[in-house]
Amino acid sequence: MDKRTSTSLIVFHESHETVDALSSLLKTRFSNVFYADIRLEPKEYLNCFRQHHHSFLFIFAFDNPHTSWVLKKSLCKNESLAPIFNINHENFLLCDKSHRELAYQLCEKGEFYSYETIKPIYDNKKLNLSLKRAVEKISLDMALLKKSRELDELQEGSDQSLKALCDKIRHAGSEQSSKLDEVISKFDGLIGSAIKDELSQSLEKLAGKLSEQEVARLLDMLRSISVSPELDKLKQHTEQMFKALQESAKPVRKTKNKVAKTGVVKSPMWAIKPLKKITIVIADDQPVLVKILASMLEPKGFKVETASNGAEAIMKAKVSDPKLLLLDIDMPILDGIETIKACKKIPNLSTIPIIMLTSYSDKEHFRTCLESGAIDYIVKPTNAETLLKKVHAVIDQYD
Length: 399
Prior knowledge:
By secondary structure, the protein is α/β, with parallel strands linked by helices. The protein contains 15 helices and ten strands.
């Protein structure tokens, strides 16, 4: 992975024993790992921030979670570090097993993303997985932030285009009205401005039997005829037409704003396809990821049912009649593969297509998913375009 675009892990600690316990564990999976010993002067242990960083996972590795909490508050209040904390980041807590209750309370309050015990480390793989999930969450947050900025730019561009269109319509209406006024003023009384002798000669050729007095009366009658009332009606009709055209641009603006808030920037063919109210069950033990996936699907007309494990997903599927299941591979109670096998044995669920959600990118895991009965798989973290494209493809195939 390119170090310039990977998340940096900053481990705050106060003992070499902590560094020894973590260094071999972290270096195998993470490329940017820095250790900050708070026993040193701040300018020394904060020296790692001088380098370029794409994003951060701050790991607070102290026996007592209270020490971590105090340090976190102190760093946040340090004005010189304000630019650092404006970069996308998360805070992870490592503590002694005797302080797990306090660690849980701090995480529940949102002070830290999650926690694990470091004295002792019960399961190296579980700790690695927890840190990997935290990094994935940072990546998802950054992807959403990027999409949000793109949508803001798109919305701003749309607003400017619509404003320019309204200005052009208003200008065209004003110009048309002026031209009609000019035509009316020139045309009205046009007969009265005609040269009498030339008109008389023309009339005499057409009606040679008319006397001079009769021709004079005919001229007076022609002078009294005015077409301006009809032209006035035409002018009013044109003005009304341009006004209606200008007003019609306002609903377009509202529609564009509404679309811009759905979270999808590009507009491939499936993005404009009208949707029925289709139910999808999402099962993953990471609540943040579930919320992100739901936020991508619900604005497109889908009804989303959520579950934190395979057993709960099966129960939700039995009562909600979904058209699709999105299952994470690694879940407690009943994992994704076992959930597929269980669904195939239940008559009402056996034909429901399943897409697997996986953090693994190796072919062996993909093969396992497909051989177990999944229709497709999505590598986490994903984006709205990939998710919606695969969801539509499967639903269109099985609907």
